[in-house]
């Protein structure tokens, strides 16, 4: 049995080497092998050069920037694993969570698992436990609530990067989204198939816009459009 770790990247020269090393070191059950697929989505920095120097990675490159969703779909089409895990390259998400993320699938308790940043988190604007990037927290809560309303799910973090699923669940050809709208469309496609999404709590180290965070409020509006389209469209 094999796990495919998909890493879409765009201008991540400062983190990609460390991230891949962490992915390689992430503990998995002995009977589960791994492959790492990295897709460079038209980076303008040294990301591609750094990846090419790293062994044990299947590397693919887009000639220009098509978007995160496009990079994920390219990787999905190349995946050889039975289970697919999507990993961001910015060190916000910790590969040490892999064992917890894949456990429900290996135990045949789930076919799709999301790593939730908010399952055990309470919103706070001040204090030691202040919620990082509160605008994003609220925006994600709105999108997640809309997802639950439209599809009858009980998610806490629809927009999470950590989406783990059996490869046969959704094919890349089913997904139209090329950018950050991949998250809501993938979620909608899964739920429309009647497949329950199981969530497990994860730990994250959120980065700021100055550190390279790319998603904006415009992406939130697009996500709403996608959720409505998938719910009421054909």
TrEMBL record:
InterPro entries: Glyco_trans_2-like, Glycosyltransferase_2, Nucleotide-diphossugar_trans
SUPFAM superfamilies linked: Nucleotide-diphospho-sugar transferases
Ranges where the Glycosyltransferase 2-like domain occurs: 4-148
Descriptive protein name: Glycosyltransferase 2-like domain-containing protein
